[in-house]
Design a protein that fits this description.
By secondary structure, the chain is mainly alpha-helical. The protein is built from seven helices and three strands.
Length: 219
Amino acid sequence: MIYIIMIAVMVASAIVQSVLNRRFEKYSKVRIGMTGAEVAERMLMAHGIHDVSVSCIPGTLTDHYDPTKKQLNLSEAVYRMPSVAAAAVAAHECGHAVQHATGYAPLRLRSALVPFVNFASKWVSWALLLGILLIQITSAPLWIAIILFGASTLFSLVTLPVEINASRRAVAWLSDAGITTYETKPMAQDALKWAAYTYVIAALGSLATLLYYIGIARD
């Protein structure tokens, strides 16, 4: 059964990524009056956030907010393009800056998990290898690997409310600020919805893998 779930997650992931790319390509052609960078700067100012910088970074959909540096990093297309897609992404990342500034609890929890997740990701592969090699003797190394991998799964699950909330903030603010209209608001909402699905799939995939390892350890 677990194999069927994992295959289904893989297929769903490919479908969601394909649809997401098509949506962003489509909405990147719908022009509005502000670039992603301008949207980000305006949204930060509207929320009284003056200590977050907005930077342009290379890549496609590499946009992210770095709370340690208080830096909003936007990909080149998002930073420079006056499109619905760019505005949606920029506002979404600003949503994380607003979460950070207001002490949004799920974001604080996710940030607190980062050190352990980094440690776990460094050693989990070795622990899994050792656990599989010694499975006939003892399951202890495999359970250690499961605990380490469980940290990544927990991180994925905690990420869901963080991303969904950032998208809700983005859609609401874009509409309230008059940047999106009756026609373009659903486009921004749709783009961010499909982006959120990627996190849902990632969490389901991580959970399915964790259950798979637990099943091996219990046999």
